[in-house]
Amino acid sequence: MPRAQANGLELEYDTFGDPAAPPIVLVMGLGAQMITWEEGFCELLARQGFHVVRFDNRDAGLSTWFDELGAPDLSGIVAGTAPAPYLLSDLANDTVGLFDALGFAKAHVVGASMGGMVAQQLAIDHPDRVLSLTSIMSTTGDRSVGQVSPAALATLTKPVPETREEQIELSVANYRVTGSPGYPATEEYLRRKATRNYDRGRHPAGMQRQAAAVMASGDRTERLHDVQVPTVVLHGDSDVMIDVSGGKATAAAIPDSELVVVPGMGHDLPEPLWPEIVAAVVRATARA
């Protein structure tokens, strides 16, 4: 897959569809690699008449890692006594750097989870570069909404095992907790997904720095009031990683946005819901 020089680092990316079609850039979440936007989903979106781009954020997958910055002090960041290695605004700038590298003056932006936060920040910081915004299973940064459930938090904060097999097992366990109860994945699928992610470039240390960026970037609610691009906010009613209140708060903050609450959807993108998710994205783009 190709790499782009963007914002002083290298971003691994992939594309689908006609390069002459309007571009849609997909931004993935905390510690997640671009392959979490599965090929079938990207192809379905491309068939709607778009040039689809997915990429690895900094500190994830095959893009530049920032291990020289060390482990963040997450408790200190929460308390306001320690700095984060970087912020969501830096990830938004990375995305704009990708736009520049690919020759996009503007693009439709779709973000999931932390990627939704980055997409929101991009619309705030670079409104002239965003055609439409789709924020999926994300939140505003207001700590009173979008909370993680105790069960999900307990699973996700377990120490990272040493061996490949143990890390794959932990990922499968995490997927079971955070997945969509209305659209349960098979054991075979979860294990294949966990194995592919590990072997391609799972990077727990980078995920910690991304988490620090989320914690340190604060509440975007007031600035979201100024977002003028057509926006769809999509969230599952069974999300234990980011409670649906985060999606509702996002939609309430962005003027004229559309809120779609999906029954039975958790914190993933199950294949049976791809047509509904793609339809929501297309509605946002049509308004642009």
Automatic annotation (TrEMBL):
Q: Which GO terms describe its molecular function?
A: hydrolase activity
Domain called AB hydrolase-1: residue spans: 22-269
Q: Which PANTHER family match?
A: AB HYDROLASE-1 DOMAIN-CONTAINING PROTEIN, HYDROLASE, ALPHA/BETA FOLD FAMILY PROTEIN
Question: What protein name applies here?
Answer: Alpha/beta fold hydrolase
State the superkingdom.
Bacteria
Instruction: State the UniProt keywords alphabetically.
Output: Hydrolase
What InterPro entries would the database entry show?
AB_hydrolase, AB_hydrolase_1, AB_hydrolase_fold
- The keyword Hydrolase is annotated on this UniProt entry: yes
